[in-house]
Amino acid sequence: MCRWLAYRGGALHPSLLVLDPAHSLVRQSLNSPLGAETVNGDGFGLGWYPIGGDAVGTPALFHSIEPAWHDENLREISRAIHSRLFFAHVRAAAGPPIQQTNCHPFRHGHWLFMHNGRIGGWRHVRRELMLRVDPEFFPLIRGTTDSEVLFHLALTFGLAQDPVAAMRRAVEFIEETGRAHGVAEPFQGTIAVSDGERIWAFRHSSLGTSRTLYVSADLTALREQYPDAERLHAFDPTARVIVSEPLNDLPGAFVEMPESTVGILGPDGYRDEPFLRAAA
Length: 280
Prior knowledge:
Layout: E1 2-12, H1 15-18, H2 25-30, E2 44-50, E3 60-64, H3 72-80, E4 83-91, E5 106-108, E6 111-119, H4 122-132, H5 146-156, H6 163-180, E7 187-194, E8 199-205, E9 214-216, H7 219-225, E10 240-243, E11 254-256, E12 261-266, E13 269-274
Antiparallel strand pairs: 1-4, 1-10, 2-3, 2-4, 5-6, 6-7, 7-8, 8-12, 9-10, 9-11, 12-13
Helix pairs in contact: 4-5, 4-6, 5-6
């Protein structure tokens, strides 16, 4: 349905991941062999935390309804920005219209959020899910996607205090609501959330058939394994990227994240842990 990537590490130009690799995110927007749709041309977005001082500030956003492969502004911006943490997303619309307010990532304060997947039976459960959003957050919903409602449900359930617990409660509520309406697969998708210091990446579906998600391998180990791969030296040793599809075909460079897992990428490195059980 969509493709995305989330980067954390030494400051670099997003173009090094969004544009330059053999199977970059922009190339995935035109040809996505592991995606539910081959083409993801219904807009894109870039969200990044600007460098300046020690404190994490409000992330910046750039959204466009142009196909990513066609937009010259994306090329200019991604080569000019420097960031230690950024999100990028290419969209394949599955019902909600093509408009800027429906482009990911979404932002609230210093939080970024993006999603690939769907809430099953959306037209049947939409009202009930939206009414569960806290009145503090409800007026902030600007678009018409299920993904934005998911984000605001997570905010309602305490994303700022405990991102994993909040996302678990949000997905459980979606699954409970969907099943009450007879929806066979209430939730499907991969999610990325960040507070500017850490990235939480979730892979889960109600039936255990989640969209693909990969994390890059430790860069120091990759450099030892491929000493002649000059491209690896463009990145800081702490650099890691979480992606819908591998950005190249270098064996071992990307490892698939297990089903119903949350991957946590922060100053102390990367780890993953169980998230939710799929329905039996």
